[in-house]
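pinned: reference chain
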Amino acid sequence: MKVIAVIPAFNEARVIGRVINEVKSRVDEVVVVDDGSTDETFAVSESTGAVVLQHVINRGQGAALQTGIIFALKRQADIIVTFDADGQHQASEITRMTEPLLLGKVDVVLGSRFLDFSSNMPPSRRLVLQLATLFTKVYTGLKVTDTHNGFRAFSRLAAEKIEIKQDGMAHASEIIEQIKKRQLRFVEVAVKIVYSDYSLQKGQKLSNSFKILWDLIIGRLTK
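pinned: its C-alpha cells
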C-alpha cells in the first residue's frame, strides 16, 4: 500500500530539512505544502527530494493540509499521514500510526499526546490544549483526548470523504466533526510530542483559541 506523508509548512526553513529526512525513510513519498513562507522553506524542502507544493500567500494550516491531501489522492495514496513541520512529532511512530489502517480496523488514526505522559509539555500549553479538546467534545459530540494534534493517518476512503474548509487552526475540530458526520471508524494512538524552545514559539496561544471558536461558529452559521 502506498503511504504518503503530507507536511504543511510556514517559515520552517530552520528545521524542515531534518523533519523531511526523518519521515521519508518511513513512507513512500513526502509532500510538503509551503504555505506562503517568506524564508527558505521551499528551497530547503526541495533540496531533500520531497515533492513541494506552494501557496502564493499564507492561507493557514487547514488550507495547506487540504492542498496536500488532494494532491496525495491524485498520486494514488492508499494511506495519508499528516505530520507537523516544526520537529515536535516523532517519525519513528509513523508505523504505529498506520498499522490500524493496514489491518483494516479503522478509517482514521488520531495521534494523542495525552495518552503518553512522558511529554515535556509546559503546564500552560496543556491547559490551552485541554480546553480546546473540551470544546471539541461539546461542539462535535465525539469523545477524543487531543483535538489539535497534527499527527494523523487517513485511509484513502476517509481522505476522500473529509473536506477541510477551515483554512486556519479550526480545521482540527472540523476534522473531528466530519469523522462523526461521515461515520468513519477511528482510534486514538499515543504519540510523544517533544517540545523545544523553537516549537513553543510557534505553537498555540490562548488568544488563538478564541479565534478558533469564532471561525467554527461562523463556519457553522454559513453552512
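why pinned: The mean pLDDT is 87. Residues 26 and 94 are 7 Å apart (CA to CA).
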